[in-house]
Amino acid sequence: MRPHESITGRYEDDEGKRQFVRELFNRGARHYDRIGRIGFFGTGHLHRRCALERAGLRPGMDALDVACGTGAVTRAMLEVLGGKGRVCGVDPSEGMLGEARKSVPAAFQLGQAEALPFPDASFDFLSMGYALRHVADLSRAFAEYHRVLRPGGRLLILEISRPQMRLGLALSRLYFRDLLPGFSWLITGSQDARRMMSYYWETIDACVPPAMIQQAIQSAGFQGAERHVELGIFSAYTGQKRVQT
Ligand SMILES: C[S@@+](CC[C@H](N)C(=O)[O-])C[C@H]1O[C@@H](n2cnc3c(N)ncnc32)[C@H](O)[C@@H]1O
Q: Whose CA is nearest to atom 14 of ligand 1?
């Protein structure tokens, strides 16, 4: 199942999307953290950390951050583990990984959600932050998450969802579509940053509804698939691999 239909004018097919997204983040990488800090009013770190704790990340676990990017979730994972456990990050963008390696002391590796470079049952916890829209196929990604988790392992997917209420949708469009791309250009002076943030909203707007994402998580074999929503827009999907498989 695709997370969204093709975005007109951006690419032609799945391979085109993969290359477009990789180049988008390679070019935008050096601006990503700055936009994240200013554009989300400094709330991103606490939001990620609270979500990890709520989803059951605890010291002593082996944790994997898929689509780690510049390491925003990875950093929060390290804090929660407090030196007890292991944290790995994986991402297909060399540019984003390069930024992560500058400041986050975790094991980073090149790779993508649909074909994770890890053996079966390697982790107790797996998260993916704000990247679900970029995979080629949701079912394939969730099957991979299920494969690399140990029995009882926990899943957390953070994503921005298109608001259901009219007012929320109008406000989100105003901010994410009309203001944030231009604002990103203003604070960085980079058209790459503007393009990265324009694509951000285009994919949120086009994304399949949350119920379909929950269903795909369940179909991959996770139990107790739930969605926690804040402000009608910040979604946290959780699930657990069965202890007996
Ligand atoms: C918006 S950034 C999110 C970074 C970070 N997780 C965060 O919370 O800020 C999206 C990331 O998804 C990565 N990505 C794109 N396609 C991917 C795929 N198929 N599998 C895994 N990661 C992917 C991009 O390279 C980029 O680093």
A: 67
Residues with CB under 6 A from ligand 1: 21, 25, 66-69, 72-73, 91-93, 96, 112-114, 129-131, 134-135
Please list the residues that pair with 226 across neighbouring strands.
238
The residue assigned the tokens 């940053």 is 193
What atom of ligand 1 comes closest to residue 65's alpha carbon? 6
One domain, residues 197 and 215: no
Which pLDDT does position 237 carry in this prediction? 98
Low-confidence ranges of the chain (pLDDT < 70): 245
CB 81 within 8 A of CB 57: yes
What pLDDT score does 42 carry? 78
pLDDT reported for residue 196: 96
Residues 78 and 187 in one domain: no
Same structural domain, 85 and 174: no
Q: How does pLDDT run across 51-78, given as a tens digit for each residue?
A: 999 999 999 999 999 999 999 999 999 9
pLDDT tens, residue by residue, 193-228? 999 999 999 999 999 999 999 999 999 999 999 999
How close is the Cα of 244 to the center of ligand 1, in Å?
31
> Which domain does 190 fall in, by range?
166-202
Domain co-membership, 61 together with 103: yes
Reduce the DSSP state of residue 17 to 3 states and report it. helix
**Residue identifier of the C-alpha nearest atom 10 of ligand 1:** 131
Are residues 177 and 134 both part of a single domain? no
Q: Report which ligand 1 atom has the smallest distance to the Cα of 68.
A: 6
Whether 218 and 99 share a structural domain: yes
Q: Are residues 29 and 132 in the same domain?
A: yes
User: 184-194: buried (b, 16+ CB within 10 Å) or exposed (e) per residue?
Assistant: bbeebebebbb
Q: Which DSSP letter does residue 16 get? A: H
